[in-house]
User: Fold this.
Amino acid sequence: MSGEPTDEDLEELRKKKMEQLKDQQGGEGQAEAAEAQRQQAEAQKKAVLRKALTDGARKRLNTVQMSKPEFGEKVEQQIVALAQSGRLQGKIDEEKMKELLSEMKPDSQSFDIKRR
Assistant:
């Protein structure tokens, strides 16, 4: 063995490298497809919310999302679920949004400290 790669070794290395490149490109294609699917789902959610909420309710929801993003996301999901299941009659106005927010708000625990 002289340490010089033979033509067969070089060809084998080329095949392996090509397979690796194909695998990498396939992985990137899947990531792009997943990102496109996520964007499409987000666009559908925004369209449903636009149909289901009045301007005042949408402003209130945006305010909630800015202060508590996780809670705002839960409220959005609830509204989308209501709209898609057909349980939503008409649009949600600001008063209905207040009621929905108060229903979904987690109960805050109060502590009474008594001194003896």
Notes: The chain has four helices and no strands. The domain at 11-101 is CATH 1.10.8.140 (Helicase, Ruva Protein; domain 3). The mean pLDDT is 84.
